[in-house]
Amino acid sequence: MTTKENIGWRAAYLIAAFGIYLTDQASKAWAVRSLRFKDAVDVIPGLLNFIYAENTGIAFSQFQDKGAFGRWILAALAALAAIGVLIYFFKTPRNEDKVLGACALLLAGICGNLTDRVRLGYVIDFIDVHFRSFHWPTFNVADAAICIGAVLLALDVFFSKKQEQSAVSSQQSNPLQQQTADNAQPGAEN
Predict the structure, then answer these.
(1) For this structure, is 143 an active site residue?
(2) Domain limits of the chain?
(3) Pseudo-torsion of CA 186, 164, 88, 18, nearest 10°?
(4) For the segment 123-133, what is each residue's pLDDT rounded down to a tens digit?
(5) Interstrand relation of 41-44 and 134-135 (parallel, antiparallel or unpaired)
(6) CA–CA separation, 126 vs 119, rounded Å?
(7) Where does the pLDDT of residue 190 fall: very low under 50, low under 70, confident under 90, or very high at 90 and above?
(8) Marked catalytic residue, from 24, 116, 128, 143
(9) Catalytic entry in 65, 125, 128, 156
(10) What is the rounded distance in angstroms from the CA atom of residue 131 to the CA atom of residue 45?
(11) Contact 26/20 with Cβ under 8 angstroms?
(12) Any catalytic annotation for residue 97?
């Protein structure tokens, strides 16, 4: 694959990430206008509500009320995470679509919440999922993108380790196959 094609595919993932970022920001703007001073809106009764919340902490409202110092520390950590994901994104081989897609989701989510934190000092959450006594913490589109991206990366790591273990055990159980493969390599002695 040429460098131009490689850059084109990466650009497509980055454009998708930007689309998710814009969706996140637009949905938060809608939440501010439509939900800020209202009670919860039942979307699916008994399962899904929209309710406005301001999260000054991190995921699931951890580290609340740390003031301006906490705001900027969390913003700096998010910026470092975004840079780390971007570096990993550009080092990932082109044929690793799951990893590239996961990185795009992570990047969109991190940047969406980072924008709120820098601009407002908190992250706007509004999606409220619950079922009977179970109640998931209120979240937003960026949080969903981060969670999905993280799960995709974890699954990729898990399944790639399984494949490596399977390949190693296969080679160990059939030494003749390994010897044939070694002889087929360039520069191997016959």
Answers:
(1) yes
(2) 3-173
(3) 120
(4) 999 999 999 88
(5) unpaired
(6) 18
(7) very low
(8) 143
(9) 125
(10) 10
(11) no
(12) no
Q: Name beta bridge partners: 74.
A: none
The answer to whether the beta carbons of residues 129 and 47 sit under 8 Å apart is yes
Sign of the Cα torsion 137, 140, 146, 147 reads positive
Sign of CA dihedral 79, 80, 81, 85: positive
- Whose CA is closest to 152, among 85, 100, 91, 77? 100
Question: H-helix or E-strand containing 125?
Answer: strand 123-131
CA dihedral 7, 9, 10, 12 (to 10 degrees): 120
Q: What is the pTM of this model?
A: 0.79
DSSP string, 62-107: BT---HHHHHHHHHHHHHHHHHHHHHHHHHS-TT-HHHHHHHHHHH
**pLDDT (tens digit, 9 = 90+) per residue, 50-77?**
999 999 876 655 556 666 777 888 899 9
- Stretch 80-89: mean pLDDT: 96
